[in-house]
From TrEMBL:
PROSITE patterns to which the protein is assigned, alphabetical: T2SP_E
Disordered: annotated span: 1-40
Protein name: Pilus assembly protein CpaF
Top-level taxon of the source organism: Bacteria
Organism: Nocardioides psychrotolerans
Stored Pfam families: T2SSE
InterPro entries, sorted: P-loop_NTPase, T2SS/T4SS_dom, T4SS_GSP_E_ATPase
UniProt GO molecular function: ATP hydrolysis activity
Domain Bacterial type II secretion system protein E, chain residue ranges per copy: 345-359
Composition-biased stretches (Low complexity): 25-37
Family: Belongs to the GSP E family.
Lineage, uppermost ranks: Bacteria, Bacillati, Actinomycetota, Actinomycetes, Propionibacteriales
Length: 500
């Protein structure tokens, strides 16, 4: 048995051997010299041999696969972006003014764009895979014919709102909840081109001198854009989509927004020519409810709609749609909602429907309701039925008239018959929570009476969805007599508290 010093020396000699030599042989050789024909089983020697082998084996380099994949992906992405840019330029050269020809049919334009795309892509030096070719074709088509990276979300029926917070931040509303989108604009200039394309089609503009704009898409979807310097982190674009086929009263019943009994009651109220205000917060579904209420209007009446951006989708035959207009670049030529309400009184309307009352037009709306134009409907932002009337008073004062508050309240109490208040819950659902009668003045206060109220005592389920529903308070409204003058009656059982 060799001494400890001999074993250490053997381990050093084996460590100095050329890489690639057998570690077992290097460790066993000294033992063979010490005692020919024998094999040492000394644990210390075995440990030394293993240590020497570990020193001799070169350290394995970090796996290059992940890094290579990232590099290849970045290279491929850059190539795709470069290809898109060159194809885009070539497309503009070949089609030129046809892309902006208002008289050209959209389907014909789409065919020509795709034909030129296929030709240009076919002449590329480096071939594309079928998936890359399809991707490039779709993205360039969306840029030329649509609205760039947000076009797929506008086509998606599950997306109800698209919010762009600068070129690199896009959010979506799905089922009432906000989720980030896996998409972005190339840069701020790309986003600005998309905004300009949207607003220019309806004669609006947005630039540093007029950095905010309200517009709409051809399908009626509402668009709001704010550009720098007001938008600090890049242009902000918000698109609230509207279904091509508007929601009906049956859809709202299915969603739980209202019950069959309240639907029957509201139908009778519209046919009975009551003046109705639909109130609620932003995104509560006021415009959808206004659309549904408007569907109850008989076909033999003349309807005039007044909006900032035309969104209402009425199905009646006799509808006149008016839209306000902002001032031009010289600050002139603006036509406000108030101007349109005044003008509508000269158009022999049976019903006046105002998309949203938000300023001094409230005074003209009250005047219309009080001068024989019963059955008018409008929407208004507020937190509840009582706040709805308070906001109406405030907006009347914005008209600059030096009217006493009591006179305004008397006008409101005389003009408005019903407030339909809508709320958006945390689970994303939109529900009508109050159907309230506006009664009369008692002293200096307008008295209100709830006819239907949302009962939330059932709480929420395991996924946070509300289990409440609209219930009758058991009180019968006093405007039933007014409805009777229009030959409209209501089943008294609608107001029974135990009715489901």
């Amino acid at each position: 048995m060799s001494s400890l010093s001999d074993r250490l020396a053997a381990a050093r000699r084996s460590g100095d051997r050329a890489p690639g030599s057998d570690p077992v042989e290097g460790a066993a050789a000294p033992e063979a010299d010490a005692a020919p024909g024998t094999v040492s089983l000394d644990p210390a020697a075995a440990a030394a041999a293993v240590a020497a082998a570990a020193r001799r084996v070169p350290t394995k380099a970090a796996d290059p696969t992940a890094g290579q994949r990232r590099t290849l992906a970045a290279t491929q992405h850059d190539r795709i972006e470069e290809l898109k840019s060159s194809v885009h330029v070539e497309l503009l050269k070949q089609l030129g003014p046809h892309l902006y020809d208002a008289d050209m049919d959209q389907n014909e334009l789409d065919k020509r764009v795709r034909a030129v795309l296929a030709d240009v892509l076919g002449r590329q030096d480096r071939p594309l895979s079928s998936s890359d070719r399809a991707r490039v074709t779709q993205e360039i088509s969306d840029d030329i014919l649509g609205y760039g990276p947000i076009e797929p979300f506008l086509r998606d029926p599950d997306v109800s709102e698209v919010m762009v917070n600068g070129p690199n931040s896009i959010w979506l509303e799905k089922s009432g909840r906000l989720v980030p989108a896996d998409a972005s604009f190339a840069d701020e200039a790309h986003l600005r081109r998309t905004i300009d394309k949207i607003v220019s089609r309806i004669g609006r503009r947005v630039d540093e001198s007029s950095p905010m704009v309200d517009a709409r898409l051809p399908d009626g979807s509402r668009v709001n854009a704010v550009v720098p310097p007001l938008a600090v982190d890049g242009s902000a674009l918000t698109i609230r989509k509207f279904a091509t086929d508007p929601l009906t009263v049956n859809d709202l019943i299915t969603f739980g927004s209202l019950s069959p009994q309240t639907a029957d009651f509201l139908d009778a109220c519209v046919r009975g020519r009551l003046n109705i205000i639909v109130s609620g917060s932003t995104g509560a579904g006021k415009t959808t409810t206004l659309n549904v209420l408007s569907s109850f209007i008989p076909d033999d009446e003349r309807i005039v709609t007044i909006e900032d951006a035309a969104e209402l989708q009425l199905k009646q035959d006799h509808v006149v749609r008016l839209e306000s207009r902002p001032s031009n670049i010289e600050g002139k030529g603006a036509v406000t909602i108030r101007d349109l309400v005044k003008n509508s009184l000269r158009m022999r309307p049976d019903r006046i429907i105002v998309g949203e009352v938000r300023d001094a037009s409230a005074l003209d709306m009250l005047q219309a309701m009080n001068t024989g134009h019963d059955g008018s409907i409008c929407t208004l932002h507020s937190n509840g039925p009582r706040d709805t009337l308070s906001r109406m008073e405030t907006m009347v004062l914005m008209a600059g008239m030096d009217l006493p508050v009591r006179a305004i309240r008397e006008q409101v109490a005389s003009a408005v018959d019903l407030v339909v208040h809508q709320t958006r819950f945390k689970d994303g659902s939109r529900r009508i929570t109050h159907i309230t009668e506006v009664e009369r003045m008692e002293g200096d206060v307008i008295t209100l009476q709830d006819i239907f109220v949302f009962d939330n005592t059932a709480g929420f389920d395991g996924e946070g969805r509300t289990l409440g529903r609209l219930r009758s308070t058991g009180l019968r409204p006093k405007f039933l007599e007014k409805m009777a003058y229009s030959n409209v009656t209501v089943d008294p059982m609608l107001f029974h508290t135990d009715r489901m």
